[in-house]
Design a protein that fits this description.
Elements lengths: L9 H6 L7 E4 L3 E5 L7 E7 L6 H7 L2 H17 L6 E4 L15 E5 L12
Antiparallel strand pairs: 1-2, 2-3, 3-5, 4-5
Bound molecules: adenosine monophosphate (AMP).
The site of adenosine monophosphate has 12 residues, from loops.
Length: 122
């Protein structure tokens, strides 16, 4: 699999400070910010600072430090938001996954009872 990163995507612009964001948490390797179009009371996006297009790209090529920093940011988001009763973490990838922004991001969604993940096949 060949991954091609487009540095003009909107999250790359957020990382460069070219467009604003509502930061929830930041460390050396990751940034977490509120989704601009929330699907639930809590809807945070966690993104790595490195140029990775999708979860599989990040999992394959990111360094151990980048992966740890990313997961620690997830932990900070989960402990700072009111999602003690649970949440959903989603990462859409490419066409079948209906990914709109080609910079890896994890949606952390919660703060209310969510519906089932997907309708059954068939
Ligand atoms: P996806 O379809 O998984 O690629 O999700 C992209 C997400 O990025 C959507 O939930 C959008 O609402 C969100 N989004 C797009 N632009 C911005 C922005 N400028 N700030 C925060 N979230 C954004």
């Amino acid at each position: 699999m060949q991954y091609e990163y487009d540095d003009q995507n909107i999250f790359a612009k957020i990382l460069r400070g070219e467009i604003p964001n509502q930061t929830v948490f930041e460390n050396e390797h990751a940034l977490a910010f509120d989704d601009i179009n929330p699907q639930a009371p809590v809807h945070v996006l966690v993104i790595p600072k490195g140029p990775y297009v999708s979860l599989d790209h990040f999992a394959r090529d990111a360094t151990d430090e980048e992966q740890l920093g990313f997961m620690r940011a997830v932990a900070e988001v989960c402990s700072s938001k009111s999602i003690e009763d649970g949440f959903r973490a989603i990462s859409n990838a490419r066409t079948h996954g209906v990914q709109d922004v080609p910079h890896y991001h994890l949606h952390i969604i919660g703060g209310a009872q969510l519906g089932r993940m997907l309708p059954p096949v068939g």
